[in-house]
Amino acid sequence: MTKVPAQGPLTGVRVVELAGIGPGPFAAMLLADLGADVVRVDRPRTPVLAIEAAYDVTNRNKRSVVVDLKAPDGADRVLDLAERADVLLEGYRPGVAERLGVGPGDCHDRNPRLVYGRMTGWGQQGPLADRAGHDIAYIARTGALGMIGSPDRPPAVPANLLGDYAGGSLYLVVGVLAALHHVRAGGTGQVVDAAIVDGTAHLSAMIHGMLAAGGWQDRRGDNLLDGGCPYYGTYGTADGGYVAVGALEPQFYAEFLRLLGIEDQADAHTDVTRWPALRERVAARFKARTRDEWTAVFDGSDACVAPVLSLREAPHDPHLAARGTFTDHDGLTQPAPAPRFSATPTTVRTGPARPGADTDDVARDWDVPRLLSAPRDPQRSAPRDPQRKATP
Question: In this predicted model, what pLDDT tens digit does every residue of 179-196 receive, in sequence order?
């Protein structure tokens, strides 16, 4: 495999990713999408929860080497990479990287300018720091999960988007980029402690302000933005589909009522005592037509109504298709890199990295000959069949 071509605002930035699951790989993918040369250090054995390598989109735009960190010289191979890197990302429990010999102290002894990014659920300190966990537990303790869903049902699970990726990956990337700026402004390398509980709590800043001001009730489904408001929520349609409504402002609400055919409900906008009756009227109207029929009714309006699309439908949405929000690479449909840049555009340059497939190239490009004696993945030369279906 040839060297990944440079493209994006982070061209020239070298990143070492110590393989893990969840928010770490996604954060490294975002840096890779932005043009960084990301080398993923995979383990000789596939970790639990990993999907087939050919379909793991979070490993796109990266290169992979395989290193057994428990081998006698495993840590030295990683430290050789860290010495030549700008950023290192790891997602182990606190203390594990240190025991493996690749902790911040070990890496900074070799490269004082290194930005060392640590991704955990609970953080590096605190009573739960050493405990296992997943997205759902992290967002539960921050109060975020308790805000989502109907008041008469258990909280709804928002996949792993809110904790792992929003509260975790994105905050890790922001922290890494800020620390990288500090280094390039003449500062030293440092450790970025990105905890999912911290990031998820931070995401709720506006809600906490509203709660303190008396503008938010500390219960689910009774507020403006949590489904308690009849003109900010979802409704079923005649064909079993759903539409989403977000007609908050008066002018949008008026347009919404006009197109829905219930203009007599204008005064219910700010009268919460009328909200239950308004919800029933809105629900009954939406049940009268299919999702696509309502989509056509609201097309081109400012009523803030949208069809609720499935994952397979979304890439075919006219607006998203026009923008190229999704892209196809080697037969694999996936979200395109975001955000967009006028001077340094980004793209999906390569498909998901195969474990160990890039060892020779990385050893040459990063001048790390010790990698050449590392174990190789037995599937490194196996061609990918674009027609093969992903395993469930």
Answer: 999 999 999 999 999 999
Instruction: Name every residue whose Cβ is closer than 8 Å to that of residue 201 and which is 6 or more positions away in sequence.
Output: 142, 143, 144, 167
Alpha carbons 46 and 9: distance in angstroms, whole number: 32
Half-sphere exposure of 237 (CA within 13 A, CB side): 19
Would you give the distance in Å from CA 11 to the centre of its chain?
21
pLDDT (tens digit per residue) in 1-47: 445 455 899 999 999 999 998 899 999 999 999 999 999 999 997 65
Rounded distance between C-alpha atoms, residue 169 and residue 90, angstroms? 12
Residue with tokens 């960190």: 69
What burial letters (b/e) apply to 141-161, b meaning 16+ CB within 10 Å?
bbebbebbbeeeeebeebebe
Distance CA 122, CA 279 (A): 40
Q: Enumerate the active-site residues.
A: 134, 164
Query: d(Cα 344, Cα 34) in Å, to the nearest integer?
Result: 9
How far the first Cα of the chain sits from its last, in Å, is: 29
Pairing label, strands 14-18, 37-42: parallel
Strands 87-90 and 115-120: parallel
In three-state secondary structure terms, 238 is coil
User: pTM for the whole thing?
Assistant: 0.91
Query: Using an 8 Å Cβ cutoff, are 46 and 20 in contact?
Result: no
CA distance linking residue 86 with residue 11, whole number of Å: 12
